Amino acid sequence: MPAAESQAEAQEEVIVTAQRRPERIQNTPVAITALDEQAIVQRKLSDIKDVVTYTPGFSGNSEDSFIDTLAIRGIVSNDYGIGGDPSIGIFKDGVYQGRTGSAVTSLFDIERAEALRGPQGFLFGRNAISGAINIVTNKPDTERVRGHVYLGYGEVDRVEGEAAVNLPLSEHWALRVAGYHTASDGWVDNVFTPGRDDRLMGENRTAARASLLYTAGPLRVIAMGEYERRRLDGTPYRASNDDREVLDAIDDALGIDLVVGGGPRDVDTDLTDPRDDGEIYGGTLQADLDLDFATLSSITAYRRHRFFYSEDYDGTPLRIGNYSQRQRGTYASQEVRLVSPGTGRFTWSAGLSGYRETVRARFTEQADETAVCLAGYGYSSCEELTQDLYGTPYVAAPGGVLVDMNEARTVNTGLSAYGDVNYRVLPKLNVGLGLRYTWDHKKFGLNILPSDTTLGNIWTFAYYTDGFVTDGRSWQGTTPRLYVRYEIQPRLNVYASVTRGYKSGGFGSFTVAAPGPIEEFGLVPDGTKPDAFAPETIWSEELGVKGDLLGGRLRFDLTGFLYNYRNLQSVYFDTETRTQRVLNVGRVQGYGAEFATTLRPSRFFDLTGTLTYTHTRKRGDRDCTLRDCGGLPNPTWASSGVGTFHYPLASGEAYLTGEWIYEGRGRQSFDWRGITRRHGYTAVNLRLGYRSESGWEAVAYVENLFDALYYHGAENGGDLTPATVWGVAQPRNVGLNLRWRFGD
Predict the structure, then answer these.
(1) Is 323 helix (H, G, I), strand (E, B) or coil?
(2) Cα 322 vs. chain centroid, distance in angstroms?
């Protein structure tokens, strides 16, 4: 085979910046997966959470804005309040994106996505104890005018469009502007509203980004502003008719025969318009100055968000668990760092970062008063309840609905200092040491509003506060990392690393800590504060092998890991106090292996695939004394991949792509009741396309080819909340995408 043809068939180098400097992914002693722009576009990855699908060790993708279900090697954030920090770090161009309501944004005009497994406190300005996703956007350049236009239409009236253009303004200035819009109807029928065309899981998203570049000699400055408006349907839940313990109790109390209607892809919910709406504004200013001995970088960022979410988490046609969350917040950060050049025997980096975050939220629970009195408390009527508890007559609330509200607010500030050194001890042996110090302070307030109904505070909260009760605490931690990398041959490396991870403590958004007994249904005593929980820590060990073989046609990455978690922050529903609590459970142990490979045996075929095995064990959770208390959502086995056949045709190529996503059974929280499970599934997508040398492309697709039925999650409830499944996947759907790239 001629040398030129061999070189054409070899794979392009993958360059990442996970260690703050550009380097080959095969030389990076970190468990990392990178998806370039072509992979993101071809696989129709629409938002940041979709990166999870094709990353070994990641799980928990869903069709909403929450990040508390995202798991890396089994570890999730597991707290939908605002008093704690996410376990997974989501970054864009190295800037922390925040929490639920602001972190999930659309993927458009993206250069690449980097997904890192394991503690990442040594790589970014914020800690990321379970792992991180870093999105790198396309930047302006002064070379030439270029850009792209993408259009698409598919089933459930899905319309999507994306456009971007790079405009050189002068020798030193360039501008890049990009926009994105998608809208679709839903695919989940609510049988509670027969005859209405109101299918759930629809979406309407609009986003825009503008970046301005100035470059002169050793100085490079990029200013970026972006905006996104999200109008999605909140996640629909479906209660299980098999949960006779809860449903029979409701039936007996209310004198009804409660049956959840519809099939497995339908829901039967009284909340006919669940919402997942958000607006996100952001601005970033990054300046890089080449000082010869190092690059000095300054990253200044500011983000603001508004978020509203509502769902019916009981999944029945009764009004028992209607929940909503209204939230707004700001996030400002500043990072300054020095990074030495990537060549040479000795390399290093050092940095300082700080942030200030403000978040305010109002949480609302709604329940039918009759259900509360009869099913919740076992009285024959609400009149009997109020006379027994308070000696007062019962007056029905408007619509007969009990509305409970609590408010939370937090001001978080933090500082950190980090650095790392890397030394080539021998021509093929490198060692590295990283160290990070983190300090966080949180000033948190919780206000549980007194009920303005005659039932009082008897449902979501059995007490109330006189305005905000507040507390402020600081936490600090030091996290080292040590690695060794050995170059077996120029394109084959083995590495081993030991890393300590840390996440600061916080406050529960739904519980208080009182200095003494709280009078039932009454005002909390003086000295009551928000309920605090402690930091969590992890020691993680990795052994990895990365290599290019067969002249670059075969690339692989095999990682084995072992970790020990202490004081894992875990949320659960306390049936005695009827509140969601966050507490530290005992210990979590996990181990497994992650494999990723890309094979390109000829110009006609290429294959990219992953395979993951993860075993986790949790002990010391609540009153559980078992060796494994369950509750971590990772599938034991998972796999994903893409295979593509290419065929030269006219002045371009035709191609057929097959994608697979497999997730084994996952054990959800409250798994001990064992009524609903998130069963394993396999989804297959097909894409048939033609790509022209002149820059245009047409792709017809079928997603979920075999119409697999699966859910993104399951909960086993308890008390008056039946076991549910939520987030049913979209059934088989077809569509067409047209793309045009110019100036390349």
Answers:
(1) strand
(2) 23
Strands (DSSP E) found in 1-48:
15-16, 23-24, 32-36
- Show the tokens assigned to 741: 């790239």
CA distance 509 to 520: 20
For residues 630 and 730, which has the higher predicted lDDT (pLDDT)?
Answer: 730
Query: Tokens at residue 149, please?
Result: 């236009």
Burial 434-465 (b: 16+ CB within 10 A, else e): bbbebebebbbbbbbbbbebbbbbbbbbbbbb
Q: Which of 136, 98, 135, 132 is nearest to 30 (CA)?
A: 132
The β-bridge partners of 625 are none
User: Residue 582: what residue type?
Assistant: V
pTM, to two decimals: 0.93
Task: Write down the pLDDT at residue 4.
Answer: 35
R_g of the chain computed on alpha carbons: 27
**Exposed / middle / buried, residue 468 (Cβ in 10 Å: 0-12, 13-18, 19+):** middle
| Angle (CA) 353 59 106, round 5° | 60
Q: Where are the alpha helices (DSSP H) in 319-381?
A: 369-371
pLDDT digits (tens, 9 = 90+) for 600-631: 999 999 999 999 999 998 888 776 777 777 77
Residue 645: Cβ within 10 Å count: 12
DSSP 244-311: HHHHHHHHHHHT------S-TT-B--S-SS-EEEEEEEEEEEEEEEE-SS-EEEEEEEEEEEEEEEEE
Q: What is the mean pLDDT of the chain?
A: 91
